[in-house]
# Entry
Amino acid sequence: MNSDRHPLKYLFCLTATSLSLIALSALSSGCGRGEFKDEKRDAMVSTYDKVKKVLGRELHVSKDRLVINQSLAQLGVNEENRLKIQDSLEKELDIKIPYATFNPNETVGTIVRVAADLKTKALAKKKEEEESASEKK
# Structure
């Protein structure tokens, strides 16, 4: 052990790290088996990945630089590229997203939240329509 480290501080950090890894392992292993299925969370994660993909491509920014609380203005969204970004996201997600969502003062998180909500509603409506159609047969 390094002589300039305080032994209790070292022990605390080691214990905290171990507990974090155990908790993360338990959470991820449970999720992998579908024990913690959360459709809303899954929609948010999937949408976030797709939003990052489109914003990265359209704004020529590394996806790693895109953060949920980043304003669109910080990323370079402006009046000239707003429509193109909106169009690309709508094609990627197969939904219509309101133009106001792409206001440069909004955040990446705003787009994710609005798009995930719209996508969830669209999927629920489609499922309902399919069930209704199968009942009529």
About this structure: The first helix runs from residue 7 to 32. The mean pLDDT is 80. The helical segments are 7-32, 39-59, 72-75, 82-93, 108-136. The chain has two domains: 1-37, 39-136.
